[in-house]
Amino acid sequence: xxxxxxxxxxxxxxxxxxxxxxxxxxxxxxxxxxxxxxxxxxxxxxxxxxxxxxxxxxxxxxxxxxxxxxxxxxxxxxxxxxxxxxxxxxxxxxxxxxxxxxxxxxxxxxxxxxxxxxxxxxxxxxxxxxxxxxxxxxxxxxxxxxxxxxxxxxxxxxxxxxxxxxxxxxxxxxxxxxxxxxxxxxxxxxxxxxxxxxxxxxxxxxxxxxxxxxxxxxxxxxxxxxxxxxxxxxxxxxxxxxxxxxxxxxxxxxxxxxxxxxxxxxxxxxxxxxxxxxxxxxxxxxxxxxxxxxxxxxxxxxxxxxxxxxxxxxxxxxxxxxxxxxxxxxxxxxxxxxxxxxxxxxxxxxxxxxxxxxxxxxxxxxxxxxxxxxxxxxxxxxxxxxxxxxxxxxxxxxxxxxxxxxxxxxxxxxxxxxxxxxxxxxxxxxxxxxxxxxxxxxxxxxxxxxxxxxxxxxxxxxxxxxxxxxxxxxxxxxxxxxxxxxxxxxxxxxxxxxxxxxxxxxxxxxxxxxxxxxxxxxxxxxxxxxxxxxxxxxxxxxxx
Length: 544
Ligand SMILES: *[C@@H]1O[C@H](CO)[C@@H](O)[C@H](O)[C@H]1NC(C)=O
Ligand SMILES: *[C@@H]1O[C@H](CO)[C@@H](O)[C@H](O)[C@H]1NC(C)=O
Ligand SMILES: *[C@@H]1O[C@H](CO)[C@@H](O)[C@H](O)[C@H]1NC(C)=O
Ligand SMILES: *[C@@H]1O[C@H](CO)[C@@H](O)[C@H](O)[C@H]1NC(C)=O
Ligand SMILES: *[C@@H]1O[C@H](CO)[C@@H](O)[C@H](O)[C@H]1NC(C)=O
Prior knowledge:
Keywords: Calcium, Carbohydrate metabolism, Disulfide bond, Hydrolase, Metal-binding, Polysaccharide degradation, Serine esterase, Signal, Xylan degradation. The protein is α/β, with parallel strands linked by helices. The protein contains 17 helices and 17 strands. The chain has three domains: 1-183, no CATH class; 187-218 and 385-544, no CATH class; 223-382, no CATH class. The strands form five sheets. A nine-stranded mixed β-sheet has the order 1-4-5-7-6-8-9-12-13, with helices on both faces. The longest helix has 27 residues, at 153-179. The structure holds 2-acetamido-2-deoxy-beta-D-glucopyranose (5 copies).
C-alpha cells in the first residue's frame, strides 16, 4: 500500500494554492485548465456545464456504446490525462456539482465493466445529481476489448488495480482544490468489472473509501474466464451434436423453472435461492422417433452437454475451477451463446494479457484448456483477481462494504460471491453477525448481471442508471442507503428492490426487501407475494 502512495505525495502540497477567479463558480471552473496542478497530470479541458446539457464524447471508443449523457446538475467538468508509468496513462473526468458544499461534500468513484475502459456515464450523471463530486475513468485503455493489453504490461497493471487507485487520488485532489475545502466522505460504486474494482479497494486500499458498493463483482476473475470458456467446450460450435440453439436453451430454462420455481413457495419466474435448485435434465430426452421439431426434446448428447454446464467445473487435478452455471438464469445465457463460439472476452483476455501472443487460440481439448486455468489460478498474473479473504484492514479502518449479486446472473454465478464471503468469515474467524459491522452481502433474486430481470431488481445501483428508468425516488437509491450507513450508522438490513416494466421503464408495483446473507427471504405462506410484507428474512434451510 505504502509503495503506491509514493507516486502521488506531491498532490497534498498543491491544495494550499488558492484557486483564482474569486467566488465565481463558472470562472473558477474554466480557469482549472491553468490552476489545477497534480503530479503526472495534464488538464485536457475544464468548463461549466448546466443541467440538461447533452454531454457528448465523440471520441469515445465505438465498443463503449452510447457516447452521450444528459447532465442532471449544474456542474464544473474537468477532464484529465494522468500518466501512470512511462508507457501507460489514465483518462478521467471529474464532475463537480454546484451544490456540493450544501449536499454533504461527498466524493464518488464509478467503476468500469468487463475488461473494459468505458466510462459509466449513467452512474456519473446520477451521483452528480445527488450532489456528489463524481469521477469516471477509462481504466487505462479505451474500449471493451482486451486487445490493448498486447505487449503492454503497464496497461494491464492499470486495469488490475492501479488506474482506480490513481484516479481516486487525483480526483480527490481536484475536488479539494476546486472547492477549497476538504471533502467529507468518499464512496465507491461499480458493477461487474466495477464490482471487482470495488473488492480490490476493500482488500488492498480500504483507507481510500468510507463506503464501497461492489455489485455482481467479477472478483474471482479467472473463474469468470474459466466458466465462460468451459461452456463453449461443452456445446462446441453450431455444427456439433452437442450444440443447442437459442430456442433450445429457452426450453432448458423453462425446464429449470418447472422443477424449481415453487421451491420458495411462489411461482413467479424467480428463484429466491437458486442454490437449492438441482435440476435434472434427462426429463428433456427425446424418446424413440421423437425430435426437437416434433416434441421439443433434446438428444442424449445435448442433455449431456447441459448437465455438464449446470455442474461445477473441476481441473485435471481435481481442483475446483468454476461453479455450476446459475440455474434460473432467466433466459440470459451470457456471452456463451451470442457468438456461436467460445466467449470473446475469455479468449481475448488469455490471448493478449496472459499469453501475450496475438496468434494464440484456444487449445483443442478441454483438458489442455483446464491446464491453462489451473496455471492462472495458481499464479493470478498481475493480481487481477480480488479474492483476498482477509479484510482486517477494512475492519480496522471502520469503513463499510456493501456487496450484492443478482441470482439470475448468466455471466458469473452469485455462488462465487457467497464463497468469497464465507472465506472471509473463516479467514477472520468472524460470524456473520460480526461481519455485519463492516461487510454485508445481499443476494438479489431475479436480477441479471447488474440490471434487468424478472425480480425486484431496481434500487438505483451501479449500471442501473442511463436506462431511462423513472418513478423511484432517487433518495431511495442504494448509494443513499450507503450514505446513511456511513454517516448516520444506520446499517441496511435489507435492500428494497422494485420490479421494472421492460417496456415503460416504470415500476410495476412489485417490491421485495432482499435479505442479507445468510438470511433467506421466505414467503410467509399467505398474502400478496408482490408485497414485501408477505416475506421475511429467516435463518435456516426450510421453507414453510
Ligand atoms: C461569472 O463569470 C462568468 C464568466 O466569466 C460570467 O458570465 C458570469 O456573469 C459571472 N457570474 C457572476 C454571478 O458574477
Ligand atoms: C445527444 O447528442 C447525441 C450526439 O449528437 C445524439 O445522438 C443524442 O440523441 C442526443 N441526446 C439527446 C437526449 O438529445
Ligand atoms: C495522455 O498522455 C500520454 C502520455 O502519458 C500521451 O501519450 C497521450 O496521447 C495523452 N492522451 C491525450 C488524450 O491527451
Ligand atoms: C487469511 O488470508 C490471508 C491472505 O490471503 C492469508 O495470508 C492467511 O494465511 C489467511 N489466514 C487464515 C487463518 O486462513
Ligand atoms: C431527497 O432528500 C433531500 C434531503 O432530505 C431533499 O431535499 C430532496 O428534495 C429529496 N429528493 C427527492 C426527489 O425527494
